[in-house]
Structures are given as structure tokens and as C-alpha cells.
Amino acid sequence: MKFRKKPLHGVKLENKLKNRQLKQQNVAKKQRKEQKKLRQAVKDAAIRTPRPLETYRKRPGEEEEEEEEFLESLPTDMMEDDDLRQMTDMARKASFITRDLSSCAPIHSTKKRKSEVIRSYEKVPRKMAKTEEKEVIHLLPIKDKSGVIPQSVERGEGGLVSSDWFTEEGAGLKVIISADHLTPAQREQRRVQKIQERKTTIATLGSAIICDPVNNIKRLKELRGMLMESDPAVAVTVRKLVMVSLMEIFKDIAPTYKIRPLTSEEKAAKVRKETQQLREFEESLVSQYKFYLEDLEQTIKDWKQQKKKRSQAVGFDSYRGLAEVAIRCLCELLLALPHFNFHNNIIVALVPLMNDPVRQVSDMCCDAFRKLFQQDKVGGAALASVRVVSGLVKSLNYNIRPEVLRTLLSLRIKEVHMKKDLEDTAPKKKFMNNKEKKKNLSRMQRKWKKAEEKLEKELLEAEASESKDKKIQLHTQTLNIVFLIYFRILKKAQKSVLLPAVLEGLANFAHLINLEFFDDLLNVLQNLIQSGDLTNQESLHCIQTVFIILSGQGDVLNVDPLKFYSQLYQMLPRLHAGAPNDDISIVLRCLDAMLTRRRKQVTLQRAMAFMKRLSVLSLHTLPNASVGLLAANRAALHAFPKCDFLLDNEVQGSGFYLPELDEPEHCNAQNTALWELHLLQRHFHPVVRRFAVHLSRGAPSEGSGALGVELSRRTPVELFDDYSVKDMTFNPPVATPTSKKKKQVEKALNEEEAELDFTKTQTPIT
Q1: Does 121 map to a domain?
Q2: Residues 320-342: pLDDT tens digits?
Q3: Would residue 649 count as lying in a domain?
Q4: Where is this region: Disordered (predicted)?
Q5: Which end of the chain is more exposed for a tag (fewer CB within 10 A), N or C?
């Protein structure tokens, strides 16, 4: 009889089953041995446990009866009275002799259960170091912020020895010294020590997270838990340190992309171990970042609402300091992580704080949004911010600070639209069709031409990418919302404090306004100027807006803004000549748009009237304003060369000059001369003297009377900013200069004397 051999896979299966059974038997044996050892240890511990004798307190009647029986049993007839009295006193004292031992039950009378044995084993006190036993007298407890604290005193040989506070810790006692017993120096030392310990903990956790974010991401929760510091002595400082530390950590470990939540299919799919680890890291990072932002927002809300917390770790006075640190952290995250999650939530939290009554908080938020607008190249963050600002203005019924609207001036919309206009006006390259190729090119040239055209098409497609179209679209939406804010305020709140900011914004973005709004906007601005309710700066912004519109897309409009020329001509003598001369900068921009850019639409009489009035104005303004006004006269003289007869003393035409007349067309400016230049040649500022000499010679581009390159290539506004009051020295050179500057001063004085000698030989201006 032949036996069949079992297949190989059957043998392997039987061996596996046998091995599994043997392992199970070994595990069961080990468990039984361990249980047996545990039972034996418990039994030994129960036997060795010292059990105190149990005493039962007797009733008062029983004690008196036993005392009487004891006295009766004594042989009183053989004892004296003193001995009898002493024995009576001894009988009244409880001692081991008078104890009723018969009433005590035996210790191990019955067999105890296993649970009772274990419970009694747990109650056995641990061995402690032998200390000197002292009598402790317990006093009334004391209650403070932390709760009820028992108080006690020790009785020594000489009476009361010490008075400390005791708190139970485990089965022993721990002494806690009251904070009231410490000196101020000791309190400060203890506080500094605690702060140093917290700093070490924060630094350890932070360095561990930054070194290995993927594996140590759980440390973020531990670090964020320190925001709930409960020690009143160091709570404020520790919370501030943790806020700033977490902000820096998130700036370092946050990826350069936005993390999206996983779909159900992606979660169910099997991935590699590295991918799963990355997913867990991203999920933990987003959740901890969200909790951190919520903590910052809650800190700000507690400050605004003056909400009192249950724990008294932080007082009301410290709320503002914590809130300012939280706002600064949000501003830093707004600028550092514009691409990361919850960026719109940060914008929503910070935009209302731009209008905060606390100036420091408002300026901090406004500066953050200015920087955000300047560094935003795509336009998504700017669009989200402008939308929230628009909602804020409407919800508060236009009762906001002007600084909120002035932040919109930092939007980078002008540059992008200028590039777009240049690309639209540039001639587009045309490709040759097949007939032209066969007619003009050979076979090899056609082959090369085909490859070249293919490459150029690919380059054009790469250049006109989706991001560029998206950027233009986002900027268009942003600009529409900005103009919506401005037009609402012009329509409903013309007398509010926001009007200067609105007019300044219109002047900044006027070249981007659609043509369909030009007529209505010009009428509104003209009515505002004629109403007389505007200040000089507001009126100047209106005039600047009008001429920027007319010098840009408004060229197609057949409008003569003579009234705006008259308004500016009338305002020039009323400008401030003191230190806050910011109006001069706006005047210089208006003159550039009114005279230089519109030279073909301006009459010669009007140009000469403005030159004469600007020369008069330059006599009583600060040096930087005088330099800017003289530079504007130089630009007007180049734009209108026939105005050079103002440098001559001959009269042109009939009549005489009317300086008090506010109409530039009818003041007869051609019958006067620029005698102010003769006075300005003796001005204390060297640049003013150079410009006066240059204009008196007819503003030549070459020769001895020409300006240097550093002055001739700068616009009037740039010269006004360069020679501002902060950078100027009003005093003339000192007679005894230092050795380093002696040669420079002497050279400058020699040049000035030579210029003055040259001007004396010229024909004087009357």
C-alpha cells in the first residue's frame, strides 16, 4: 500500500498551527505563574502588616461604676489620706492597666477577602525618615485666592516656636511659607526665577519643533497650553512670550502653499508611509494654527469687552498689554503668511481694529495693511481687504477715521494698468501665411521659419499666463470697490472728516476712472469748491483730481476748466508759508498737470499770470517751497518760451498789471516783470540763489547760467522733498569752520561771489 506524500503547503500549515498552540500554552503558563506570585506576595504582606490594638470608648456610666468598684477593692483602712488621694487620681487616668482587653476582638478571627487584604495593604504608611516629634497645635485656617489653607503652630520647650502654613502632599506634610512674610526683594527674586524657568521651557519646546517639525508637531499643543498660565506673578509675561514664540514658529514651519482638507476618497486610499506622515503633519499644523488664532482673537475680545475671567491670574490692567501683543502677532502673520490658511480670517479680525480709538493699535493695523498692499503682487489679499473695509465703512455709517481710507492709497493698481495699456497700444507681431512663405522664402527658410514661429507662439502663451489675466481681473474688482467707497461718501457724507481722504484717493486713481463718470464727477467737484466749505488742502485735491482726469483719458472731452484755473490762481496767496507747507506739494502737482501737460490748451496770458504769482509766493515761503516754486517757473518757461519777455523791463501792450485781480486772463501780466528774482539772488539758501540766477538769465540749458545735472533733471516735487525743512541748515556758514569742511566752504563762497558779481553787470530788472 502506497502512501501519498502531503503537499508542501499542507505541511507548512500544520507546523504553523502547532507553533501557535505552543505559544498560547507558554503564555498561559506565564500568566498562571505571575498570578501565583502576586497572591503569595499579597498574603505575605497581609501577615507582616502591624495592626494596632482596637480600643472602644466606654459609656460614662460604666466608667463611674468601674471606678467605684476599684476604690472599694482597695484596703483603705491600711492607707493614709494622702496616699488614698494619690491612688484615686491615678485611677482616673487612662492607662494600659485599666484598659478592658477582653472587649477587643482578635486580629485574625476570620478569613478576610482578597480585596480587603489589598485595601489594607495600600493603607500601610510608607517608611519615612525619622524626625523629631513635636507637639502641633492646629489653629483656624486662612482663606486666600488659591483656597483654604490650614494653619498650625509648634510647641517647644519655651512655648510657641514657629508659625507656618502646612499643606498635605501624599502621606506627609510640606511647609509652605506665606507670600505675606516675604520681603519685596525676595518676591521679585522668586518671580525672576519662575520667569527664567518658563523661558527655558519655551526655548526647549520651540527648538525641538523647529529642528524636526514633522515628528515634534505634538509639542505645539504643549507650548500652546502655556497660554493658560495660572500663576498671577508671571502669567502676563509668560503669555506674551508664548504668543510671540508661537508666531515665530508658525512663520518658520508653515509651508509655502495652502493646505486643503482631504476628501473621503483620498482618506480611504492607501498611500505610502511618508505620504501618510506628511498628511498627519499638515492636519495637525492646520488645527494648532487655528487654535492659536482663536486664542489671539479671544484675547482681543476680552480686552474690548472687559470680560472678567473666573481665574484671577490676569487683571483688567494687563488686558491691554496682552491684546497689543496679540494684535502685533496677527499683523506679523498677515504679512508673513498671505498664502497660508485662515488669511481672510486674520483680515476680518484686523480691519475693525484700524478704526480703534487707541491710536497705537490703529496705527499698527494701518501700517500692516499698507505693507500688505505694497507687497501684494497678485491682488487676492488686497481684494479681500478692500471688501472688508467697504463693509466696515457702510456698517459704521461713515463714522471712521480718515487713516482707514488713506491706507487704500498704497494699492499697486496703477502700475499694473499702465503695463496693460502699453501692451494694448504696442503693435502685435503678425505671422506669415503659407502663400507669403512660398512666394518670399526658399524651402530651407520656410522650414526654419516654421520652427521659429512655433517657438514664438509657445513663448507668447507662457507670457500671457492665467496668473496675469487673473491679476488684472482682481485689480479691476478692487478698483471698482474703492471707487464705490469714494462715490458713496461724496454722495452721502460730503461734510464728514473723510472728504480730504476721499479727494486725495480720487486724485491718486483719477486716471483709472471710466469715461462715463467724468461729467458727474466734474460737476460734484466744482460744486464742492464753490460751496466754500472746503479747506485749502481739500480744494487743491479737487483741482488735482480734475486735471489728472483731463490729462489722461479725459483728453477726448471738450471741456475748458477755466473755473478751476481761476480757483487755483485765487488760492495761491492764501497758502501757508510756515512749517506745515504740505499744500505746496499739491500745488506743484497741479501746476504740472495744468501748465506743462496741457500746454496746447493754455493761453500765454494765463501762463504769464501764474509765473508772476508763483514768483511773488516764493518770497515768503520756506526754502524748500521756494526751490519747488522756482523749478515750476522754470518748467513753465520751457513750455512757453514767449514768457521770457517777463525778464525785460519793457511794457507789452496797453494797460497795467493788476495783482489783486483773481482772473489770470485779465490781470495784464504781460505789463510787469519778475523783479522778485533780483531779491532771491541774495537769499540765504544756496539752491534758491542758483535758481534765481538761472531764471534771470532765461533758464538756459547750456552755458554759465545753466543748472547742474543734479538739479536740472529733477521735477519740482522731487526738489521740494529733497530740500525739506528737516534736511536744511538755515544758518549761514560759520566764520571758523572745521578743518575738514574749510576748503568746501571757501569754494562755495567764492562761487557765490562770482555769481553775484556777474549779476551786477547785467541790466537791472525794474
Answers
A1: no
A2: 888 999 999 999 999 999 999 99
A3: yes
A4: 1-72, 731-766
A5: N
